[in-house]
Amino acid sequence: MELPSESDPAAAADAQGSLRTRLVSAGLSGLLLSLCFPNSSLVALLPVALVPLMAAIQGARVRAAALAGTVFALSFWILTIPWIAYTVHRYGGVPWWAAAIALVVTALIMVPPFGLMTALVAALAPRSVLALLFVWPAAWIAQEGFRTYIYVFGGFPWALVAYPLAERPAWIQTASLGGVWLTSGLVILVNALFFCAVRSRVRRTRVALGLAALLLMGSVFSYGVWRMHAFKQLAAATPWVSVGVLQPNVSQDERWTAEARRVIYDDLVARTRTVARELKGTTRLILWPESASPYQWSWSPELRDSVVALCRELDVAIVLSTAWSDTPESDEAPIYNAAVLVTSAGPVLPPYFKLRLV
């Protein structure tokens, strides 16, 4: 469908109404997709969340499609990363109105990949079912790849469409075959099948496309269940090492006083002992989450002595993250975001320095 010429007032009014409908549909799609991510985690919406966006782009001119993609992206990002505003307000000390602006600016930065994607789909103008089933997954994967590896300071791989499935292991086993790109592509393919089913005027075709979407979902789930079962059988017949993972989930607001730091660190040590005990001596490695310790390795001899002693006591190795400086006594020396492996013999050096800051 092409927008009518503005020389015809009635046609121009119809075009304006059509554009308004497209933008509302795109914004609704952004809302639905955002609800699939934490904290809402309504993953059941994922197979159809992008159907309104596909409807908004179908038959649109390139400019209208790019605008619809912009509205979709703004809706999605503002609702998916609202913590940006809270963080800027709480820890940046700025008023709420400025924090809201920071959130909108962040969302605006993430708009272009989606606007380009929807403009590309409109330019290709897929009409047939087969064309739609190919173009949408391909365009979406290209958008995610561009956003992950190229766009904004060398990549911004947040909120890929496969991520909501991470808490449901059976649904993400396809990543073993083609990485996150295959899983994302399958999510988009299911949405495209449902979209084609909705737009078809032939009842038999609608039913066939709907069943194809359900069959694809069932196949993905069945493969996931089979692969997890096969892994459990392999694990049962293979000697393996237990790895303990901690997540104290301490609020940032609790980390700033000396008394709180002591309590947080003591709790971390207690949790480490509990994990080692629950795994009945089979544990060989325990992972502390990012910034779990309120003390920093290079500036705290007490932390270094404590972690090494804990490794000796429990006969484990511990991986922890910390701020690191090769010359902590110098205020001019560079500071790194580091991961350190600590054993009963001490730290294994050199540490790993984070290569790409986001």
What does this structure look like?
- This protein has 358 residues and is α/β, with parallel strands linked by helices.
- It has helices at residues 9-35, 51-57, 62-80, 83-92, 96-109, 111-124, 129-149, 151-154, 175-199, 203-236, 258-278, 301-314; strands spanning 242-245, 283-287, 317-324, 336-343, 346-353.
- A 5-stranded mixed sheet has the order 1-2-3-4-5.
- Strand 2, helix 12 (301-314) and strand 3 (317-324) form a beta-alpha-beta unit.
- The two termini are 41 Å apart.
Characteristic terms for this protein:
5 strands; single chain; alpha/beta; disordered N terminus; five-stranded mixed sheet; 12 helices; globular; 358 residues
Largest sheet properties: 5 strands, mixed
Major sheet strand order: 1-2-3-4-5
Q: Compute the number of strand runs.
A: 5
Mean pLDDT: 91
- Shape descriptor reads globular
Distance between the termini: 41 Å
Residue runs with pLDDT of under 50 for 5 or more positions: 1-8, 10-14
How much of the residues is beta strand, in percent? 5-15%
Judged by helices, strands and strand pairing, the structural class is alpha/beta
Describe the structure concisely for a colleague.
Helix content is 59%, strand content 9%. The chain is α/β, with parallel strands linked by helices.
